[in-house]
Hints:
By secondary structure, this protein is an all-alpha fold. The chain has 4 helices and no strands. It has helices at residues 3-8, 12-50, 56-75, 81-95. The protein is elongated and about 65 Å long.
Amino acid sequence: MSAYNHNLTDSSDEQLRMARRRARMKLGWYLHASVYILVNLGLTTLAALQGRHWAVYPAVFWGLGLAMHGATVWISSPHSALWARMVDKELRAMQSPNKK
C-alpha cells in the first residue's frame, strides 16, 4: 500500500466509510446501465415495429452519458486503482532528484 493510501485509511471507520461510498457509486452505475439497456431495448422494439431507425439516437447520446458516468466511477474516482497509481507515481517523481 502506498504512503498516500495509508494516510487516507488510518482508521477502520474511515475504510468502512470509503468502501461504502465506492460500493454506492458502483451500484449507481450498474443501475444506470440496467435502465439504459431496458429502455433502449424498448425503444429499439418500438422503432422496429414502426419500420424506422430513430432509436439509435437516444442510445448513442445516452450511451455517451453512461460512458462518462462509468469513467467517473471506474477510472477517475479519487480512490480508484488508476488514480492511486497516478498519485503514487507523482509522489515518487516529487521525491526523486530532478532529472533533465
